[in-house]
Structure formats: structure tokens, C-alpha cells
Design a protein that fits this description.
The protein has 82 residues and is an all-alpha fold. The chain is 70% helix and 0% strand. It has helices at residues 4-17, 29-41, 46-53, 57-68, 71-80. The radius of gyration is 17 Å and the shape is globular. Mean pLDDT is 81; it is low at 7-19.
């Protein structure tokens, strides 16, 4: 019984705030490509797409520069773009 209230509060808080998203790592090619594909599909909803992915414009820009500077990452990124 003692743990019931804290457990319920934790579950409610998780449901309200949802899972937290990790920052976009510069070499996370799969995630960067998914964000870019979503932005292409919804070009007028940039802020909403970024919020949905839990990233900022600066994080996406930094990741894209890092990917572009590495030929292997750039090739993988290009293959994942729709």
C-alpha cells in the first residue's frame, strides 16, 4: 500500500509528459534522415516536426554538417532519404 500512491503518481506523470527524447547526436544518421524526410513531407510545419522529434534547429544543423563532413555517413544518409 505504501508504494501504491508514488507508483500511481509516476504513471500519471509519465502519461502526461510522455517519454523524453535524447538529443540528436551528430552521427545519428538514421534519426537525421527521418527528421529530414518528415520535414520534406511537411515543409510548413517545421517547428511541429522538430518538436515531435524532440530536437532543435541547431541540433539538426550540427548533425547535418557532421554527416556531410564524413563520406561514409553522407552516403548512408543519402540512401535513407526518400
Amino acid at each position: 500500500m505504501r508504494l501504491l500512491l508514488p507508483t500511481v503518481l509516476l504513471l500519471v506523470a509519465s502519461a502526461c509528459f510522455g517519454p523524453t527524447k535524447a538529443p540528436l547526436e551528430p552521427t545519428d544518421v538514421v534519426r537525421a534522415a527521418a527528421i529530414a524526410n518528415d520535414l520534406k513531407a511537411e515543409p510548413r510545419a517545421v517547428d511541429a516536426v522538430l518538436a515531435r522529434h524532440g530536437v532543435t534547429r541547431d541540433q539538426v544543423e550540427a548533425a547535418l554538417y557532421a554527416i556531410a563532413s564524413d563520406p561514409d555517413l553522407a552516403q548512408k544518409y543519402a540512401s535513407l532519404r526518400k
